[in-house]
TrEMBL record:
The lineage of its organism: Eukaryota, Viridiplantae, Streptophyta, Embryophyta, Tracheophyta. Residues 11-85, 87-143, 223-291, 294-350 form the Agenet domain. CDD domains: Tudor_Agenet_AtDUF_rpt1_3 (cd20405), Tudor_Agenet_AtDUF_rpt2_4 (cd20406). InterPro entries: Agenet-like_dom, Agenet_dom_plant. It comes from Forsythia ovata. PANTHER family: AGENET DOMAIN-CONTAINING PROTEIN-RELATED (PTHR31917). This is Agenet domain-containing protein.
Length: 364
């Protein structure tokens, strides 16, 4: 695993820096919580950088009077995502949704209205409904850069005003007509964010309807598999995020679990293939074979075959002779692969295979 050096710490994770924090705890994969850096040091045991942070929305006590502090590996941090203009989202677009005091990675499965969306979360296999104000475009922090880059906010031209032109009142009232605007809020966790809103009517100070989260319409997506069916299995173990193991269904068990047999992993005695009980939420069918592309592009999501396991990653460099560098988010590693060892990344959602949309460079 690549370590973050002191220069990067000094540039992005200095004392007082606003950051987002990931967690290695079970059930928190794909989530980011806001916080502030209090300090950092080099670990004596393995020379990695440790950063002390204070969470913005997570509390140490039940009364909610003391914010949680924690010393973490620098690999669990990234800078606060720059704010963007409000925008609409499309089906199968990757997003982060704000709930449970943090941002959680998901994918839009349905556009329910002008500002309402159904979002599917890969790790929990849950589907929830959100309004646009609680969504943002999903991004990864890769080697000091956002992938894809944030959308640029419109610049506001500075207007110099003479003394005679200054308004008589100290407070300047903004005049808004009915339509879309952006507003901020004092609500915990999202004070620095701007949300899509609509001006309902104009009477003195404008009345604004802020788009907040729809009450979750929670739905657990359950998969059913037949004995002897070839499948792929994911794992919650540390270091295996984004990995899919080839396996075969042996039989269905109680409470949505299956007994599976791995096709490449063997037991401790190396006498037979490893068998394990796995929750159906961690199982998907084998992706359909699709014709290989002539070439993959930088920033394209792929799955790379490494040690007989398929790993989800992002193409970070196109090399000569049909070779690529692929960056893996889960462990911050970059490895080289031949074209034949890569396949198009697909998502198994609601019983069908989905191709995540490609990055549209024209937007920024």
């Amino acid at each position: 695993m690549a370590n973050i050096d002191e220069d990067m710490i000094a540039q992005y994770f200095y004392k007082g820096a606003k950051v987002e924090i990931s967690s290695k705890d079970e059930g928190f994969q794909g989530s980011w919580f806001q916080g502030t850096v209090l300090g950092y040091r080099k670990s004596k045991s393995n020379s990695c950088m440790k950063v002390l942070v204070r969470y913005k929305t997570l509390m140490k006590d039940k009364e909610g009077t003391r914010r949680l502090k924690e010393e973490l590996d620098a690999m669990q941090l990234r800078p606060a995502l720059p704010p963007e203009n409000c925008r609409r989202f499309e089906s199968y677009e990757e997003v982060d949704a704000y709930y449970h005091d943090g941002w959680w990675a998901g994918i839009i499965t349905e556009v329910l209205g002008e500002d309402k969306y159904s979002v599917f979360f890969r790790d929990s296999r849950e589907q929830r409904c959100f309004k646009a104000a609680r969504l943002r475009r999903h991004r990864e922090w890769v080697y000091g850069k956002w992938v894809p880059p944030p959308l640029k906010r419109a610049k506001v031209e500075e207007v110099s005003m003479s003394t005679e032109e200054k308004p008589k009142k100290e407070t300047i009232d903004n005049n808004f007509s009915q339509g879309e605007v952006e507003v901020n809020t004092d609500e915990d966790g999202i004070q620095d964010d701007w949300f899509a809103a609509v001006v309902d009517k104009k009477s003195g100070a404008p009345e604004v309807s802020i788009a907040t989260e729809v009450k979750p319409n929670e739905e657990i997506i359950v998969n059913n598999f037949s004995p002897r069916a070839p499948v792929e299995v994911s794992s919650d173990e540390d270091g295996f995020g984004g990995a899919w193991f080839p396996a075969t269904i042996v039989k269905e068990l109680d409470k949505g679990k299956y007994l599976i047999e791995y096709r490449t992993l063997r037991n401790d005695d190396d006498t037979e293939l490893l068998r394990e009980e796995v929750d159906s939420l961690h199982i998907r069918p084998c992706p359909p074979d699709i014709e290989l592309l002539d070439r993959f592009e930088v920033l394209e999501e792929v799955e790379a075959l490494y040690n007989d396991i398929w790993w989800v990653g992002v193409v970070s460099k196109v090399r000569k002779n049909d070779e690529y560098n692929v960056y893996f988010r889960s462990n911050n590693e970059e490895l080289g692969f031949k074209h034949s060892d890569l396949r198009v990344h697909q998502e198994w959602i609601n019983g069908k295979w989905i191709f995540p949309p490609k990055v549209q460079f024209s937007e920024y």
